[in-house]
Specification:
Elements (H helix, E strand, L loop, with lengths): L1 E5 L2 H18 L5 E2 L4 H15 L8 H4 L22 H14 L5 E4 L21 E4 L2 H7 L12 E4 L2 H5 L3 E6 L5 H9 L17 E6 L9 H14 L6
Parallel strand pairs: 1-7, 2-3, 3-6, 6-7
Antiparallel strand pairs: 4-5
This protein binds 2-amino-2-deoxy-6-O-phosphono-alpha-D-glucopyranose.
């Protein structure tokens, strides 16, 4: 697990966009897993910027990203939260589309205040797959900002499972702001537990957290992470580009 500490939201967005653009550059047919949430808006803005500068980028998504970049709509797979009926079948077909694409090369993640990744709320099984998940009140409230006044924020969501996420070859988790600091500290330095879904990322061999000072404020090993970063830049700079 690599922990990249940055000053603020802007620096995080830029670093994440550069890492994603670099991965696409190395593998143009990269299978990319993306995330919604306010943390991602800056990342997508920078990706659009890098794309406009001539870097190829093939892969919330329409208005922040897909409308502005060269992604064939056939290659976009967003679970449709409005379906009714056979959720199991729908979720299994989503898993199948990941397999058919050859698996996810790079999975971008945010984190909820309660430590969720995707919409895997606390107590989600570490082996869980794509499924319909009931949202916690905290998540319903946090997401209400994305919906118009009077419009009800969803109470359930279709989300990739933790097991699905852990199969991505590389994972990038972004977090900003003090409200995420407890979840970040528990995820990186706490025990692996279903009570904090993101702590399951400790089981993955290639995870990078990019977090700002406020989100990092409860980490106890900050000096060490800085030192690791310096050595990474010297010895394995590929991990940072
Ligand atoms: C949401 C989404 C996640 C997002 C997280 C944090 O519920 N499922 O993809 O990363 O919560 O959202 P935000 O970045 O708005 O704080």
């Amino acid at each position: 697990m690599l922990v990249i500490l940055k000053r603020d939201d802007e620096a995080i967005s830029l670093q994440a966009a550069q890492l994603i653009a670099g991965a696409v550059h190395k593998k143009p047919a990269l299978v990319l897993g993306l995330a919604t949430g306010s943390t991602m808006v800056g990342v997508y803005k920078h990706l659009v910027g890098l794309h406009k500068q001539g870097r190829s980028f093939r892969h919330f998504m329409h208005e922040n990203l897909f409308a502005h970049v060269n992604v064939n709509s056939r290659n976009i797979h967003i679970p449709d939260g409005t379906i009714r009926g056979n959720y199991d079948e729908y979720c299994a077909s989503y898993e199948n589309s990941i397999r058919k694409a050859g698996g996810i090369d790079l999975q971008l993640l945010g984190i909820g205040r309660n430590g969720h990744i995707g919409f895997n709320e606390p107590t989600s099984s570490i082996g869980s797959r794509t499924r319909l998940k009931v949202l916690s009140q905290e998540t319903i409230d946090d997401n209400s900002k994305f919906f118009a006044k009077g419009e009800e924020s969803p109470r359930c969501a279709i989300t990739m499972g933790i097991g699905t996420i852990l199969e991505a070859r590389k994972i990038l988790l972004l977090a900003t702001g003090k409200s995420k600091s407890t979840a970040v500290a528990k995820s990186i330095e706490g025990p692996v537990t279903s009570a904090v879904s993101a702590s399951a990322l400790q089981l993955h061999p290639d995870v990078t957290f990019i977090i700002d000072d406020a989100a990092a404020s409860q980490l106890t090993q900050r000096d060490y992470y800085h030192r690791v970063l310096e050595m990474t830049a010297l010895l394995t700079p590929d991990r940072l580009s």
